[in-house]
Amino acid sequence: MPFPFDITATDGRARTGVLKTPRGDVRTPAFMPVGTAATVKAMTVDQVKQTGADIILGNTYHLMLRPGPERMEKLGGLHRFMRWDRPILTDSGGFQVMSLSGISKLTEEAVTFSSHVDGSKHVLTPERSIEIQADRIGADISMQLDECVAWPAEEARARKGMELSARWAKRSKDAFGTRETQALFGIQQGSTYEHLRRESSERLREIGFDGYAIGGLAVGEGHQAMCEVLDYAPDMLPAARPRYLMGVGKPVDLVEAVWRGVDMFDCVLPTRAGRHGQAWTWDGPLNLKNARFAEDEAPLDASVPCPASQEYSRAYLHHLIRTDEILGKILLTWHNLAFYQALNAAMREAISAGGFDAFRADFHARHAAGG
Q: Among residues 11, 54, 91, 210, which one is catalytic?
């Protein structure tokens, strides 16, 4: 395995550790801010670093359309292009193809789709996805191409998607080969069917990956159904490698997933919420558009180590959001990303101290009171 993964402490099923990469260590549990189009929206890379992020996520689908994979390579890859010198994980492009584009055809060989930008036609195979991620973009961690089946799904449809994803996993691994400074993660599929996820995991383990993701969740099934899948899905994956829950989620989702053995996360929620006036805090979310904040001189959350969290009043942030000032979007995004990193740091500390159950109970109590 190119990236050693040292699990430094466990508490029940929760784990904390370090994924060691040539561009720096990733402390787990880890939250990856989403850099959709070579930028974490509304943030400079220095601000993202200041929040405590060890790694970010890049979106293959968006980058392959603009500026294009060959141009990305010509400009030195994504790290140099956006001035981010820490690890980057890229998704395969499959989820955005299914959700954003006009799909022309999905076959055993590839998915053919129309760009949501200009309608141009593109063909994405497992091999092309790996080429774009690993060779053109230069991702530290690439993801296999998979089919993310929409929810709800009948068992037959879920099986079809799982089996195609498993075959594409093998093709992705063959295309990726063995690399010393880059890693490849496989993706478990199977919707909400335990036996399908077990079969998916067995096929992935047989192929062998540097890390393993849990896919096909956060697609509308809801928090409770997601937790029911996570009651069994992480334990089906190799304990010695990172487990990555894709596209998740709200703070409560992260806490519950870590309690069940998940190590890594990504989600657009903190940046998207910030641009729309919502701030996440230890006492739950705040909608800064609400009139009750018009004369509130308290900071967003003084316990979060971030200038946006500590140095601006809720009244001022309310004013910025209500007048649609760009600064309001920047500050709330900055705060939200800092809160997510503070949450993960607190979980790492609680696991190391053997107190994650107490942390989880306190987290739920504070959110319930704040809500």
A: 91
CA distances from 226 to 29, 216, 359 (A): 18, 10, 21
Residue 241 has pLDDT above 70, yes or no: yes
91 is catalytic: yes
d(CA 132, CA 145): 11
Tell which residue, 186, 188, 190, has the closest CA to residue 160.
190
Has this prediction a pTM greater than 0.90? yes
Tokens 């009171």: give the residue.
369
Which DSSP string corresponds to 242-309? -EEETTB--HHHHHHHHHTT--EEEESHHHHHHHTTEEEETTEEEETTSGGGTT--SBS-TTS-SHHH
Using DSSP, state whether 21 is helix, strand or coil.
Answer: strand
Q: Give the pairing type, strands 111-114 and 102-106.
A: antiparallel
In eight-state DSSP terms, residue 235 is G
What are φ and ψ of residue 251, in 5° steps? Answer: -55, -40
Helices (H) and strands (E) in the chain, counts: 15, 16
Contact 25, 54 (CB under 8 A): yes
How far, in Å, CA of 49 to CA of 36, rounded?
17
Alpha-carbon separation of residue 19 from 27, 73, 105, 279, 356 (angstroms): 6, 26, 38, 29, 21
Q: Which residue has the tokens 């063909």?
A: 123
SS3 content of the chain, % helix, strand, coil (to 5): 45, 20, 35
- Whether 283 is a known active-site residue: answer no
Count Cβ neighbours within 10 Å for each residue of 164-182 and write b for 16 or more, e otherwise.
bbbebbbbbbebbeeeeeb
Catalytic residue among 54, 210, 253, 266: 266
Determine the 3-state secondary structure of 20 from DSSP: strand
What distances in angstroms separate CA 245 from CA 60, 134, 164, 293, one per listed residue?
Answer: 18, 21, 20, 35
φ, ψ at 327 (rounded to 5°): -60, -35
Give the type of residue at 195: H
Cα–Cα distance, 257 to 15 (Å, whole number): 11
The amino acid at residue 178 is T
pLDDT, tens only, 21-66: 999 999 999 999 999 999 999 999 999 999 999 999 999 999 999 9
Is the bond into 234 cis (omega within 30 degrees of 0)?
no
